[in-house]
Amino acid sequence: MAELMDYDEVLARFDPTLGLEVHVELNTATKMFCACDNSPGGEPNTKVCPVCLGLPGSLPVVNGRAVESAIRIGLALGCSIAPWSRFARKNYFYPDMTKDFQTSQYDEPICFDGHVDLLVDGQTYGIEIERVHMEEDAGKLTHAGASGRIQDADYSLVDYNRAGTPLMEIVTKPIGGLGAHTPDVGRAYLAHLRDLMVALGVSDARMEAGNLRCDVNISLAPKGATELGKRTETKNVNSLRAVEDALRYEIRRQGALLSAGGSVTQETRHWNEQGWTSPGRSKEQAEDYRYFPEPDLVPVAPSAAWIEELRATLPEPPAQRRARLQTQWGFTDLEMRDVVGTSGSLDLIDATVGAGASASSARKWWLGELARRANETDAELADLPITPAQVARVQALVDAGTLTDKLARSVFEGVLAGEGDPDAVVASRGLAVVSDDGALGEAVDAVIAAQPDVADKIRAGKVQAAGALIGAVMKAMRGQADAARVRELILERLA
Hints:
39% of the residues lie in helices and 19% in strands. It has 16 helices and 14 strands. The chain has helices at 7-13, 64-76, 182-200, 240-259, 304-311, 318-329, 333-341, 345-354, 359-376, 388-399, 405-416, 422-429, 437-450, 452-459, 466-476, 483-493; strands spanning 14-25, 80-81, 88-91, 101-104, 111-120, 123-136, 140-144, 155-159, 166-172, 212-222, 231-237, 267-272, 276-282, 292-293. The strands form 3 sheets. Strands 2-5-6-9-1-10-11-12-13 form a 9-stranded mixed β-sheet. Strands 4-3-14 form a 3-stranded antiparallel β-sheet, with no helix packed on it. Strands 7-8 form a two-stranded antiparallel ribbon. The radius of gyration is 29 Å and the shape is elongated. Belongs to the GatB/GatE family. GatB subfamily.
């Protein structure tokens, strides 16, 4: 690892400038310029055609839904929408793109000059968006070697299924004045984009699946300097924590270099999950991609009326929605932070509340028992085979006294195992709470007889000792006894 400087010491001597380039994979049914299936997965090289393979004579056609998604993204980010934009060919050696160029937008993007306000630690930070442009993704390379990297690979395999997937690239302008909060703002911005893409319905925005990828640019300049320092670009960072950690690491690494009299190499870098960045390729000289207008595609010219129609479809902004729901649910800032920090839980809790559960109980189950089960199977909360309505029904059974929380966990287990709805699981597993005085009385009498010393304490006025007997009854009845009624029966018998 490189030598690192204390973070606070770096910030005392240097000002960081942040820049973020975010690629968003759209969830359109087909690819950007052809009719191939755009769903993830599948056997390698089975979702391809002459267009996305770049075969001679094939002609691309722009995906109209992708254009619509691009405009909605731009509007949600406060961008102006270009009345006329066009595609270009970005020429570069692409081992995972058979036509050896990427169809993208260059000097005439569809969206430009946006703005986002982020609230971080009680302070608002403005993020200026330079552009949002449309392009296509490349294929996927798999390097066969010990590390999975090209440097020590024996050979590489290429899968073109992803080639041609619609991508939106969202590029910020340089962001200064963040100081020590630079990593926090970087993370908050990515979280904002993730939530926004999901709210718009244009992307699954799952960073671990590559739906949302971030190139993190950071540079340092001496305090008071008017020129920006040389930047590094950490490529394809794919989690919120990694964005924050990569920024903190690079700030400390660059600070150590500059303080020792060295200079920062302008280059791409790779983030290692062990906690550091490593060099990629030099970017000291500007890349010459030899852009030229794509001759096979007509310009994109959305009408003002269509843009306004799309503006009317925008959902409630995620930050505004979170603030509204927090007020409605009565959550503390800490409770709401846990909800926002658990992917997918906000929508699930909202739907569970809508199905009749209280906000506190919905939060308890989704962030507790169900989050634990998702972690055990390495699944997303939203992918668990249980619906918000079913969670609300389990809570309704608890509220009615039919289930205890312990029994409810067994019901969740049954629902997740595919045994049916909550009521069917309760019936098939015999999980309902026993409140019949006959059965409870027999169990209470047996426990009192087995623990006469505890019974004597209760007779002597130490009512709190009843807890031991209640616990024994609950154990004897496999947790299915009505604990409140058990207590009443014990005290009645020992009054």
